[in-house]
Recover the amino acids of this structure.
């Protein structure tokens, strides 16, 4: 597996340890992203119709499961040498792909509350390195009009102790900021990919455009972490022909997925 020299993994690891997120610019060919979006739209639209106007994340803000099938499972993306090198440094050489999600604010959405995804630590009171990550790539350019993500660097190490349940009480709601904090807006070009420690405090922002802001999220973890999705979803779902087409390392990363019978 040859390394793509345009990514300085050592520097990215420094950014990761401090900020809790990194961006791989131009990792995915735009024609690949366009092909994924074309296949994604009918899947997305069916599930949005099923969920209705007020899904759990708020008005017109959707999470739709991404199927483990072509063209969404693409070795040129999830098994890209630079990404593999980075994830091995973060999660260890035996990391696994647990589930496949999406973030979709439609036009008309407002700010999310500030939040983190999951727990601050598996061991209360003890700060640990990342044990899971979200590897995310938008299917369109993201910007301040269509609802790009906002992230507060360094907050992955902040414990739950002493924090109010509603983090808007700490950071402020919408445009009304509180305190001396410095969020970063992740305005990404189509074809870029970013990796986030889900413990980072972050929020979705309003989509004031005329189109959905689709982003797919591949969730990876250390191999010993319990996966609620895999525990609950026990049907065989991974196409046999796709599995057999994968190189050995890609199969290793996907080893928890349940492959259909031939």
């Amino acid at each position: 597996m040859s390394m793509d020299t345009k990514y300085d993994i050592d520097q990215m690891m420094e950014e990761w340890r401090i900020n809790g997120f990194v961006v791989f610019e131009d990792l995915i060919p735009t024609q690949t992203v366009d092909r994924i979006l074309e296949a994604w739209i009918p899947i997305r639209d069916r599930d949005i119709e099923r969920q209705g106007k007020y899904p759990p994340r708020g008005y017109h803000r959707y999470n739709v499961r991404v199927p483990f099938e072509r063209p969404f499972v693409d070795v040129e993306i999830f098994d890209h040498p630079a990404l593999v090198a980075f994830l091995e440094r973060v999660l260890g050489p035996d990391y696994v792909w647990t589930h496949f999600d999406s973030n979709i604010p439609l036009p008309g959405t407002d700010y999310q509350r500030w939040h983190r995804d999951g727990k601050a630590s598996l061991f209360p009171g003890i700060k640990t390195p990342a044990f899971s990550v979200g590897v995310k790539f938008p299917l369109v350019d993201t910007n301040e009009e269509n609802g790009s993500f906002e992230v507060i660097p360094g907050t992955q190490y902040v414990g739950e102790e002493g924090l109010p349940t509603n983090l808007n009480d700490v950071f402020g709601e919408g445009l009304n900021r509180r305190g001396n904090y410095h969020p970063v807006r992740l305005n990404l070009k189509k074809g870029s990919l970013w990796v986030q420690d889900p413990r980072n405090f972050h929020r979705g922002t309003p989509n004031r455009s005329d189109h959905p802001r689709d982003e797919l999220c591949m969730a990876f973890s250390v191999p010993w972490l319990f996966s609620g999705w895999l525990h609950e979803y026990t049907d065989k779902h991974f196409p046999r022909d796709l599995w057999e087409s994968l190189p050995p390392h890609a199969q290793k990363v996907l080893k928890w997925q349940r492959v259909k019978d031939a």
